[in-house]
Design brief:
Aminopeptidase; 2 domains; 9-stranded mixed beta sheet; 6-stranded mixed beta sheet; 11 helices
């Protein structure tokens, strides 16, 4: 398939004309998160459940294929699969195409075979991950069930590449627990026996294929959500300066708003709790209280994550006056030493002795559905690797002061 093989010029134009015969379009996407530029094949006018699937192909050399065929019947699996593909820097992503019956004649099967059958020189270890969703009564609320194609009556190793995703910093490190689909009555149907896509990949293409069954408790954070509606509310109190235009969520800094610092002072940890409570219940008074306490806020839409967020920056302390030894004329020389970076006013504080900017703690609080809890990142580089963990917030910088 030309789209998978990354052809250019006449070959790509021919592929585009062929796509129009099926009411499809080929999109050139400048940025697909850490995967860089990518291309997509999608229907030009029909809603996704009405016909074929959407295929996205990255420009890297990964051999990972991620599929979510039943996005309508299993809510949250489409966004979950897309973020897993981005976090793991996959090659091909297939969304939808499983309706009405996920069998050999389902639209997804054609794209599944194309992704597996194309020649990809230099690709990494091939692996197919099919993202699925279960009912609440099939497994523990926070437990992922892994189907290897047949019931795992004994402990079996995971395919190469999948086990690493569960390690610290991996694309699935946020999953609290997992187990293999064994022969028990409640899990036997999740093993993958009879799954056409898994059987085609393993038996005919020789590629390991796994079904990942996520319960509702792990999928609820990926439910459809329009962050622009919430950003519209926050714009009314001066926290949004870019509308719903995507910005770099890690590099974003808070902005000054009227009334900052004229209320009772609270610690950074308490301010973070209040912003998290706002994300859960939508009470704007919580944010106004944080602003009056002297901490700085800003809301926006993340260009990498696609999620709405509020960045909280620690309040800048008052300058510390240091008495220097008396000069030759007997008068004390006074100098101030500022040990913080950007204050609520938006200015950058620097040490007068060294000229170095002193980093301050800040946190990203995600707007919309989340799994709860916090992640911590010592610096911005680490924070970028944690964008796909669907906790409520992420603290960037030093550990919280006790």
């Amino acid at each position: 398939m030309p789209l998978i093989e990354g052809v250019e010029g006449d070959g790509l134009r021919i592929a585009g004309r062929m796509a129009t015969l099926l009411d499809h379009e080929i999109w050139d996407i400048e940025r697909c998160g850490p995967a860089g530029p990518c291309r997509a094949l999608a229907e030009g006018w029909l809603p996704m459940p009405a016909g074929w699937a959407t295929l996205v192909v990255a420009s890297g050399e990964s051999g990972l294929i991620v599929e979510a065929p039943q996005v309508s019947e299993e809510p949250g699996t489409g966004r979950l699969a897309a973020e897993l593909w981005l976090a793991a820097r996959g090659k091909a992503l297939v969304i939808g195409g499983g309706a009405p019956v996920l069998g050999p004649h389902a639209p997804v099967q054609a794209l599944h075979q194309a992704a597996l059958g194309s020649s990809l020189p230099g690709s990494g270890a091939p692996l197919v991950l099919q993202v699925r969703g279960t009912r609440a009564d099939r497994q523990a609320s926070g437990e992922l069930v892994i189907g290897l194609g047949q019931p795992a009556l004994d402990a079996l190793p995971l395919p190469p590449g999948l086990g690493d995703m569960f390690q610290s910093g991996g694309a699935l490190a946020w999953v609290p627990g997992r187990r293999l689909a064994d022969g028990s009555p409640e899990l036997a149907g999740l093993a993958g026996a009879g799954n056409v896509q898994l059987e085609f990949a393993t038996a005919l293409a020789g590629v390991p294929a796994v079904a990942l069954w996520f319960p509702p408790a792990l999928r609820r954070a990926y439910a459809p959500h329009d962050p622009c509606v919430e950003l519209g509310r926050l714009e009314q109190i001066g926290l949004v300066s870019d509308g719903c235009t995507p910005i770099d969520e890690i590099g974003a800094r808070a902005i000054a708003v009227p009334g900052a610092g004229d209320g009772r002072s609270v610690e950074f940890a308490e301010a973070l709790v209040r912003v998290e409570r706002y994300a859960d219940n939508g009470d704007l008074h919580l944010l106004l209280g944080v602003v009056r306490s002297g901490h700085a806020l800003r809301a926006g839409l993340g260009q990498t994550s696609g999620r709405g967020f509020i960045v909280l920056e620690e309040r800048a302390p008052a300058p510390v006056v240091v008495e220097a030894p008396k000069g030759r004329k007997g008068r004390a020389a006074r100098r101030s030493k500022v040990a913080e970076e950007t204050g609520a006013s938006g200015q950058v504080g620097m040490s007068e002795e060294t000229g170095d900017e002193a980093p301050r703690r800040r946190a990203l609080v995600w707007i919309g559905p989340a799994l709860g809890g916090r992640t911590r990142a010592a610096d911005e580089a680490t924070a970028r690797t944690l964008l796909w963990q669907r906790t409520r917030s992420m603290v960037i910088g030093a550990e919280e002061k006790r």
